[in-house]
């Protein structure tokens, strides 16, 4: 059984990005730049935003953070996005989700210029992915594809079962895996799926993106399965100073001995998500710079 460590894959990605960034700066005289918009003070969101800024600094990217109050109006947020869309010094725009309930996330996502949509959530980016055209891809599924490549896990002809059909993980994951060249046979399951274990047991590769701690147990996987755990769940743990620990959607202890390869939580898929955000920002900067040269 192999433990698929996101850190190893991310380190390789960061190494490549550092070189690409240095080349970019040498050629254009400025660094790739990411604008991050945070609304409110949710601790998890603030911590994600801080990690993104740190990753930018580590790579030599520039970043500018906008911290808006919880009660900011939708119009004000949209106006900021429009300003960033038109700002040539900004290459990628990310609005940290979730947003407060009075703001329509769909409208916000649609307002981001598609060529700066480094999260890959814009409907045009999603459509491009579905029809196999180039465009930005949601960072978590893209990170999983990088992990599968790094560890040389073949997807062609394999039965991949994805549990979860969210727009940011389950659906783009399926779109990537059915592309020509990836050639997986994909089943997507969700909360209305009947007899889930009978389906997950058919998986050569099982991807869990459910948001329920330790949901996938040993009896739900077949011997030799590759298990990708996307879940990040906080469970109370008084023995930790912060009072909780992070666990995945997969019961690692019982599932690992049955699997041929498995991602841990933490240290698995999560690390790749930010690495792919940096990758997308690099691509956005390169594409915008090339367009400006034309
Ligand atoms: P989400 O939008 O809440 O979607 C969860 C999916 O799981 C839904 O499709 C839901 O079905 C399905 N589901 C819930 N209960 C189920 C059950 N009992 N049986 C079968 N399916 C069930 O979540 P998400 O945003 O995709 O995130 C999923 C997990 O991944 C969360 O733990 C999240 O924190 C984590 N995550 C991690 C990263 C990372 O960087 N590693 C990135 C994004 C998300 P319905 O559609 O029928 O409701």
Compact overview of the structure:
The protein is of the alpha/beta class and 294 residues long. It has ten helices and eleven strands.
Which key terms come to mind for this protein?
294 residues, binds NADP nicotinamide-adenine-dinucleotide phosphate, 3-stranded parallel sheet, alpha/beta, 11 strands, 6-stranded parallel sheet, Rossmann fold, single chain, 2 domains
Describe this structure in words.
This protein has 294 residues and is of the alpha/beta class. The protein has helices spanning 6-28, 43-59, 74-85, 105-111, 123-130, 139-150, 170-177, 196-200, 252-255, 269-293; strands spanning 2-3, 33-39, 62-68, 92-95, 159-163, 185-189, 205-208, 226-229, 233-236, 244-247, 261-262. The strands form three sheets. The protein has a six-stranded parallel sheet with strand order 1-11-8-7-5-6. Helix 1 runs parallel beside helix 10. The mean pLDDT is 97. NADP nicotinamide-adenine-dinucleotide phosphate is lined by residues 140, 163-166, 168-170, 189-193, 196, 209-212, 230-233, 269-270, 273.
In terms of topology, how is this protein built?
Blueprint: E1 2-3, H1 6-28, E2 33-39, H2 43-59, E3 62-68, H3 74-85, E4 92-95, H4 105-111, H5 123-130, H6 139-150, E5 159-163, H7 170-177, E6 185-189, H8 196-200, E7 205-208, E8 226-229, E9 233-236, E10 244-247, H9 252-255, E11 261-262, H10 269-293
Parallel strand pairs: 1-11, 2-3, 2-4, 5-6, 5-7, 7-8, 8-11
Antiparallel strand pairs: 9-10
The structure holds NADP nicotinamide-adenine-dinucleotide phosphate (NAP).
Residues 140, 163-166, 168-170, 189-193, 196, 209-212, 230-233, 269-270, 273 line the site of NADP nicotinamide-adenine-dinucleotide phosphate.
